[in-house]
Specification:
This protein has 2 domains: 57 residues, Winged helix-like DNA-binding domain superfamily/Winged helix DNA-binding domain (Arc Repressor Mutant, subunit A, Orthogonal Bundle), CATH 1.10.10; 185 residues, Rossmann fold, CATH 3.40.50.1360. The chain is built from 10 helices and 15 strands. The longest helix is centred in the first third of the chain and has 15 residues. It comes from Paraburkholderia saeva.
Amino acid sequence: MLTSQRKQLILDMLAREGQVVARTLSAAFGVSEDTVRRDLRELAGDGRLQRVHGGALPSSPAAVDFAGRQGIESTAKAAIGRAAAQMIAPGQIAIVDGGTTAVQLARHLPRDLRATIVTHSPSVAVELAQHTALEVILIGGRLFRHSMVAVGAAALEALGHIRADVYFMGVTGVHPEAGFSTGDLEEAYMKRALAAHAAETIVLASAEKLNAASAYMIAEITAASTVVVEEDTPAALTAPLEALGVTIVRA
């Protein structure tokens, strides 16, 4: 079997089963585990999958930069943002993460909502500039341009004084075993800290993020109470999350 054929079979199996195990692939193809690991390493280098101990998971296409993500399923993200915006009650303190879906959340907040929005995203803050009934707290720090959010020591220190009712978290990967993940280590630390400063975490996840993983884990799936997905998301993608006790809201 040619290497290219073997790699395509690996990708086909990954799409079908949601994960692959190096030992199983070795037996199925009649090649050594070293050969399989080389295939996985090369596929990971091409961005086709995410390697994990013993095998691989689907790689999230949501790991592209902010500008690139704006064109991915924008209708679905608007629906998710609209549904999430309705979850913020008057008087609450809500942390809103960065990213294109979070911008949609901000865009759909009622103009007369009286609440406090905490964000480390300049894009979200600008979106809320005309919402005069809202108190907007912008956390500063080093600008991580990929996601257009503030990260680093200054951002973490500012966050230390905040206790929120709810945190709306953006991710690039949602996987029942690999948990919530993102493509940058420092951003993963920031998201974990934001979750620690809120009573409840709600994850916003368009379809391309489900059953996928990125390099840096944020938290286990059970760290979130709710995952908001688009209305027509296949049940096969959400059932494993519900089995872990997570509430699925279809936008």
